[in-house]
Design a protein that fits this description.
Blueprint (H helix, E strand, L loop, with lengths): L1 H25 L4 E5 L5 E4 L8 E5 L8 H7 L4 H9 L2 E5 L4 H13 L3 E5 L3 H11 L6 E4 L2 E4 L3 H10 L18 E2 L37
Parallel strand pairs: 4-5, 5-8
Antiparallel strand pairs: 1-2, 1-3, 4-6, 6-7
Length: 217
């Protein structure tokens, strides 16, 4: 009996160790947008080590809002486990029919996902750094990224990640609103315009024979 308990505990410990080692690989990569002291913008998967302003782009869905995290707690066990291990993020653009089709597929299966829009040059640079390509849509399932929409491929990867084939979302659940891939920079404040300096008063008229005092009437 003791031998069986020891073996069971050893097996559980081994599983826990494997999950702990695998956890970093399941998380989506964070991309940093770095503005150097000279104003040059670069993208990297490593935080900056020198002076400069950096903005962390979190494409993997790990930066979900507190309300989204609270909602996921109400998911059925199967769905909750899939969301925890393999968060889904969809990258879309304006006027992109494949993006619309991909969004519809996720909605039909009840897949909770975050949507990042690519509309500016900075967004396009970040997408290139993230996926190695500049085409849309891009689907991120954990650390796996699929470029372009193909229903059969997307379904196979979602199945492998453990997502249910039909919706198990609680009634009334809504995915977070789409947000830009790169958060817009705060507007640069310009100094307030100063009032123009008052023009100097005109010189008094010179005295004349008819007005020797130079008075103005």
């Amino acid at each position: 009996m003791k031998s069986t308990m020891i073996q069971t505990r050893s097996a559980l410990l081994a599983v826990a160790t494997l999950l702990a080692l695998a956890a970093p690989a399941l998380q989506a990569q964070t991309i940093y947008r770095i503005v150097g002291p000279d104003g040059r913008v670069t993208f990297s998967d490593q935080p900056p080590v020198s002076a400069g302003k950096a903005t962390a782009l979190s494409p993997g869905g790990r930066s979900a809002s507190a309300s989204a995290a609270t909602a996921s707690a109400a998911f059925p066990l199967e769905l909750r486990q899939a969301v925890s291990k393999f968060p889904v993020t969809l990258y879309t653009g304006d006027g992109c029919e494949p993006c619309t089709n991909g969004r519809a597929l996720l909605a039909s299966r009840g897949i909770p996902f975050s949507e990042r829009t690519v509309t500016t040059a900075q967004d396009a640079e970040a997408l290139q750094r993230l996926s190695g390509q500049n085409s849309l849509p891009v689907l991120s399932i954990g650390g796996q990224r699929l470029t372009g929409f193909l229903s059969s491929d997307w379904s196979q990867y979602l199945d492998a990640a453990g997502y249910p084939a039909s919706s198990q979302l609680p009634s009334g659940y809504r995915n977070p609103a789409p947000t830009p891939l790169v958060a817009p920079s705060a507007p640069v404040e310009t100094p307030a315009e100063t009032a123009p300096a008052a023009a100097p008063p005109p010189a008094p008229p010179a005295p004349t024979q008819d007005n020797p005092s130079g008075l103005r009437f």
